Amino acid sequence: MTYIAKPKLHHPTLTRNNVGYTRRDYEGRISTLCAGCGHDSISAAIVQACWELDIEPHRVAKLSGIGCSSKTPDYFLGASHGFNSVHGRMPSVLTGANLANRELLYLGISGDGDSASIGLGQFANAMRRGVRMAYIVENNGVYGLTKGQFSATADRGSKSKKGAINTDAPIDLVGLALQLGATYVARSFSGDKAQLVPLIKGAMEHGGAAFIDVISPCVTFNNHAGSTKSYDYVREHNDAVSRIDFISEHEEITTDYAPGEVVDVRQHDGSVLRLRKLHPEYDPTDRLAAMNYMHEQQARGEIVTGLLYVDPLATDLHTAFNTTERPLNTLGRAELCPGARALDKINASLR
Amino acid sequence: MNGREQHAEGCTETMNAITAVNDFVVKFANVNGSGSASANELFAKAIMRMGVPVAPRNIFPSNIQGLPTWYEARVCEKGYAGRRGGVDLMVAMNPQTWDADVSEIAPGGYLFYDSTRPMLASKFRADVNVIGVPLTAIANATYSDPRQRQLFKNIIYVGALSVLLDVDASVFETLFAEQYRGKERLLESNVRALHLGRDYVREHLAAPIGLRVERRDHVGEQIFVDGNSAIALGLVYGGATVAAWYPITPSTSIAEAFQKYCSKYRVDAASGRQNFAIVQAEDELAAIGVVVGAGWNGARAFTATSGPGISLMTEFIGLAYFAEIPVTIIDVQRGGPSTGMPTRTQQSDLISTAYASHGDTKHVLLFPQDPHECFEHAAAALDLADRLQTPIFVMTDLDIGMNQRLCRPFQWDEQRDYDRGKVMSAAELDAGREFARYKDVDGDGIPWRTLPGTHPTKGSYFTRGTTRDPYARYSERGPDYLYNMDRLRRKFKTAATLVPQPVERAAKQKTPWGVIYFGSTSPAMAEALDVLEARGIAVDAMRLRAFPFPDSVPAFIAAHERVFVVEQNVDAQMRSMLINELEIDPARLIKVLHCDGTPITARFITRTIAEHIEAAGKATPERAMEAA
Ligand SMILES: Cc1ncc(C[n+]2csc(CCOP(=O)(O)OP(=O)(O)O)c2C)c(N)n1
Ligand code: SF4
Ligand SMILES: [Mg+2]
Questions:
Q1: Planar angle of CA B563, B566, B570, nearest 5 degrees
Q2: Which ligand 2 atom sits nearest the alpha carbon of residue A111?
Q3: What is the mean pLDDT of residues B605-619?
Q4: Residue A274: its pLDDT value, please?
Q5: Residues with Cβ within 6 A of ligand 1?
Q6: φ/ψ (deg, to 5) at A115
Q7: Do B294 and A79 touch (CB under 8 A)?
Q8: Residues of B in contact with A81 (CB under 8 A)
Q9: A76 alpha carbon, distance to own chain's centre
Q10: Over the stretch A291-334, which tens digit does the pLDDT of each residue have?
């Protein structure tokens, strides 16, 4: 942990993306998390994804709840507005922010305690409303910030650092997201950047509610033998359904694959998610099949990762509301106030 | 006595009958869900079309169908809109509550009932004049459909009452014509039902009774509207674009009315798209969360709720206070604590809103007195929230919110623009203006903010509920914390100068007595002050319209030896706030508390104040206090 500010000077050799930014421009303050914390790897993946996507940093609004995970928005996208709200309530704050300005990209960062314990209701309702956002849960099975108590995603039988056994059944956020109508559902692992970065890119470009559950080990409180959220456990039980490449709208699709080996999923904005299938029978556009597969593998103790489900043509809450194209926060008196003449009529109708 | 016939068996004609012109109370005892509400409203409107003010109140249980409900209409040509207390004419349409309803009638008053089935003589009172009309029999003879029988029975009793009280048929016919324009069949059948009632009374009873309506011109251009609709309209005019809410009595109709007005006035004509967004949230935590997110991102946003919802929202309210985010919250108060009296009125959320949330927090509250001010304060709240970057509460209650009230028409100055407060633009950032999110650069305690997405390299900041330095950087240093809290206190002082200022009414002569009141107590107080004045009791009055208290409030208290504080709660919350905020000697503030869930009456205020002052006699108020 260090509080020394990063030097602001850019290294001349740092590569610029199509909007003229270097990777550095997507970084934030120095992290204050424990060295080796999975959350820091996710922050790095977000930086990489946004840089690769040519997103201007200030066009992203990053929101979070409370927890070690929820602190991380301070550690990436320093030029974006961020909002570290209250414990378990990021989804509602993000919903409101999104309604106010539909033109920004919304990134919601949460923890397993934040989303599955105290905030389960808000998580569920944001999913079913289809708020357009990339919602990332940094899932370590414990409350890191309050020093290692089990969270609601801890597996039954999982052992705490102090030796206690968790007797409660786990809440599976991926299963819930699928059931509740999320239109982009993925699981990944903080230790697998190659899988995580394209998943984040796909989520950022998705047209509706995108959810990624990222297993993110807490090195301080939940990385021991007997934990099902440790680096070792996840590496041993990771069952990836596919390898995914993200191809932006303007990129040329070059590599050729044998038929059946890949699936190209084109999202509403023209970007393509290229899935190199690891399980030939897996169909990521079949919600029910995804749920079944997950449950089967879970029963075997496997952690299914990859893009589990996507509705490439998903729409969002604004579409459902038929909201004006212009952001609501830019509308003024002319659009909003019916005026004195209308009021006279209203008065007349009340006599 | 005006002639009435006694149809009930065994009822003796009373010699003593109340006579009054344009000054009486009619109470309708109905069964919830029987369709009586629109008939009763029709009755009230008809009298107002005669130029005579009416103040009606719904008294209803927390129930959808089957339980008793009452509609108490005070006819008063002087325009007093407070509840009077007492009942001159009971329209007893609910057998379940018969005994209680009958016992409530003032001696010499009138009992109107459905005489289709004979009633035991013991069910009547000797000192009450009984008027029976076989409503069910008439309805059944005319209509075959059960629903029609029920609905038109209501119109039939309105017709009967109109003759008994001497209300012209023409005003009803005009009202029907307005309501059923283009729906000729409905228009005809309503007019027919009205005349069924009128004809019966004319043929069988002596009319009018001692209570009569005479044409006057005391309504003028006033409008008749409920506070919740007025709030919703004020929010539309004030530019609210994001609403999030969770249903709770008595606030629910605000969101519904907002939706209705938005559908009419906020749909872009060219595209058919909505210039608003309404989320019916999963609970009040989410509702306020949405509002906080929208406010942070520069949209005008509000939520409407009642006490239990406020309790759930308090964590977020603290965040909005500390992170300085514009939020507008409408609290339509009902009887507490807990679920309390959910369909009764109180002013009992004052402390729970003024100091909502943990730590040292203070919030701005507005106290509209009637639907006219509901409209004004709702629009003002959105401006104040943006200007002060903090939660603003509009504190109404069930009495104002859910009852239609005659009040001044709504007004909107065509030149008025929205005050969006201190929002730094990209151009200002480019021009080199320093941006320090939590620094007091203007001396008023209000910092500048930027909206997300404003500028590629300048003006971004991280919003959090933790302490920070003036540049929004995380800090737990004591001096940074104190700088911030000191600034927030300064901002609160600024708020006192921006909120709606108190309204004073001086007595005709100099007096050591003052009275402070606010919100829905207003109409009863206006009447009480007239009565006190007529009795030669001089009291200066101040109506509070907001918290924090402007300087005129301590000045008013200082100018009087004793000040009554009239409020509708158990613990004298406003008095506590005055003592707490202004360091007033508690002995100088006399509690006048009405808190049984019914709206406060002029009779209660007058009696309490008069007794107190009379007890003082020629003695000084100090001695009176000792006696009290
Ligand atoms: C209302 C409320 N209750 C409790 C807390 C204390 N608290 C802070 S973080 C946290 C748990 C965070 O767990 P998680 O979301 O999994 O984040 P992690 O630290 O594991 O990344 C708790 C209980 C709080 N901040 N607010
Ligand atoms: S306590 Fe755990 S979750 Fe928190 S920073 Fe340390 S390793 Fe990460
Ligand atoms: Mg956790």
A1: 120
A2: 3
A3: 87
A4: 84
A5: A 66-69, 87, 111-114, 138, 140, 142-146, 151
A6: -100, -35
A7: no
A8: 450-453, 460-463
A9: 14
A10: 999 999 888 888 999 999 999 999 999 999 999 999 999 999 99
Mean pLDDT of B40-65: 90
Which of these CATH numbers, 3.40.50.300, 1.10.8.60, 1.20.59.20, 3.40.920.10, describes B6-212?
3.40.920.10
State in Å: Cα A217 to ligand 3 middle: 9
CA distance B586 to A8: 59
Using alpha carbons, select from B393, B377, B371 the residue that is nearest to residue B306. B393
Nearest residue CA, atom 1 of ligand 2?
A144
B39 and B155 Cβ atoms separated by less than 8 Å: yes
Is B131 in a helix, a strand, or coil?
strand
pLDDT of A86 above 90: yes
Domain with CATH 3.40.50.970 in chain B: 225-407
* Domains present along chain A, CATH in parentheses: 23-320 (3.40.50.970)
Average pLDDT, chain A: 92
DSSP states along B262-325: HHHHSB-TTT--BS-EEEE-SSHHHHHHHHHHHHHTT--EEEEE-HHHHHHHHHHHHHHHHHT-
Give the whole-angstrom CA distance, residue B448 versus residue B501.
26
Instruction: Please name the residue whose Cα sits nearest to atom 2 of ligand 2.
Output: A218
Distance from CA of B423 to the nearest CA of A (A): 12
- From chain B, pick out residues whose CB is under 8 angstroms from the CB of A93: 289-290, 292-293, 296
Q: How far is CA B367 from CA A93, A229, B343, B396, in A?
A: 28, 54, 20, 6
State how far the Cα of B365 lies from the Cα of B352, in Å rounded to an integer.
11
Helix axis angle, B169-179 to B36-49, nearest 10° = 120
Q: Is the pLDDT of residue B618 over 50?
A: no
Residue A2 banded pLDDT, cuts 50, 70, 90: very low
Which residues, 6 or more positions from B461, have their beta carbon under 8 angstroms from its beta carbon?
Answer: A81, A82, B435, B437, B450, B471, B472
Q: Are B409 and A347 a contacting pair at CB < 8 A?
A: yes
Locus of tokens 């103040």: B55
To the nearest whole angstrom, how far is the Cα of B8 from the nearest Cα of chain A?
39
A79 vs B221, B299, B460: nearest CB = B460
Q: Are B513 and B555 in contact (CB under 8 A)?
A: no
What's the rounded Cα separation, in Å, for the pair B45 and B505?
Answer: 31
Secondary structure percentages of chain A, helix, strand, coil, to 5: 35, 20, 45
Angle between helices B169-179 and B146-164 (to 10 degrees): 140
Q: How many residues does chain A have?
A: 351
**Architecture in CATH of B503-627:** 3-Layer(aba) Sandwich (3.40)
What is the pTM assigned to this prediction?
A: 0.95
3-state secondary structure B43-74: HHHHHHHCCCCEEEEEECCCCCCCCEEEEEEE
pLDDT of residue A282: 86
Query: Tens of pLDDT along B8-35?
Result: 433 445 458 999 999 999 999 999 888 8
Mean pLDDT across the stretch B388-402? 98
Residues of chain B with CATH 3.40.50.920: 503-627
Q: Name the residue facing B274 among A95, A124, A321 (closest C-beta).
A: A321
Taking one residue from A and the other from B, the number of pairs with CB-CB distance under 8 angstroms is 223
What are the pLDDT digits (tens) for B374-392?
999 999 999 999 999 999 9
Provide the percentage of residues in chain B whose pLDDT is more than 70. 95
Does domain B225-407 bear CATH number 3.30.70.2520? Answer: no
Q: How far apart are the C-alpha atoms of A75 and B75, rounded to whole Å?
A: 67
Residues 275-334 of A with CB under 8 A from B: 317-318, 321-325, 328-329, 331-333
How many other C-beta atoms lie within 10 A of the C-beta of residue B575?
24
Q: How much is the pLDDT for A262?
A: 77
